[in-house]
Amino acid sequence: MAARAVAVRVVAWLLLGAAGLTQTLATNSTDAPFGAGIRAPCSEIILRQEVLKDGFHRDLLIKVKFGESIEDLQTCRLLVKHYIPTGLFVDPYELASLRERNITEAVMISENFNIEAPNYLSKESEVLIYARQDAQCIDCFQAFLPVHYRYHRPHSKDEETFIVVNNPHLLMYCDQEFPILRCWAQSQVAAPCALKSKEICQWNNMKYKSIYKNVTLQVPVGLTIHTSLVCSVTLLITILCSTLILVAVFKYGHFSL
Fold this sequence. Notes:
Layout: H1 2-31, E1 45-52, E2 57-66, E3 76-84, E4 88-89, H2 92-100, E5 106-108, E6 125-130, E7 132-133, E8 140-149, E9 160-165, E10 169-174, H3 181-184, E11 185-192, E12 200-206, E13 209-210, E14 215-220, H4 227-252
Parallel strand pairs: 1-13
Antiparallel strand pairs: 1-2, 2-8, 3-6, 3-10, 4-8, 5-6, 7-8, 9-14, 10-12, 11-12
Organism: Sciurus vulgaris
Membrane topology: Single-pass membrane protein
InterPro entries: PIG-X/PBN1, PIGX
């Protein structure tokens, strides 16, 4: 009987100890700050692409926001790799002027590029834009690129056509490894380390969430039924202007044999 009483007492003490330990763990987990211990799932990178201005000459603005502070990623660089559709073109001479004025850091890498060709004789072009950190947002980057409409074929009925600008590839390169990069990196892409550098770096192709699926631009086009009228008026104006120039040359010009 004495042995049984001792055994019962021991079991009771064990049960009470287990209950106290469970309560302590629950209290500690409730009072612990968010993010302590096991790291929470990685947040998303948010990309916003929009087109500014009106008319045939537009500005493509790309903003990137990281879901968490990137104070530890100050040694990282962000590169936007964009494919410009055939309905648009980027002027390489304009890009050179903007780089000299330190407005944007973009360069074309497509060859045999013709800015005068219409959209149906053009090819998709590729542009690299080195994004800059936003001064008003510690975990934001932005990239700027001027784009222009190409001439399109006239339509038989519709007076407009549409250009779809797909979302770009987002690349990141860091001088040192960060565990958080594993959340976003998908693959590696070879690209110049900097705008004026010939050295090639292996950039991480980052996955992100876009606010807009794609950007669609509306372009006015001519109608085929106006072809005869436009050609006739153009020819008439050309003949008239040429005649006026010849009359002015013979009237006010000085000729010597």
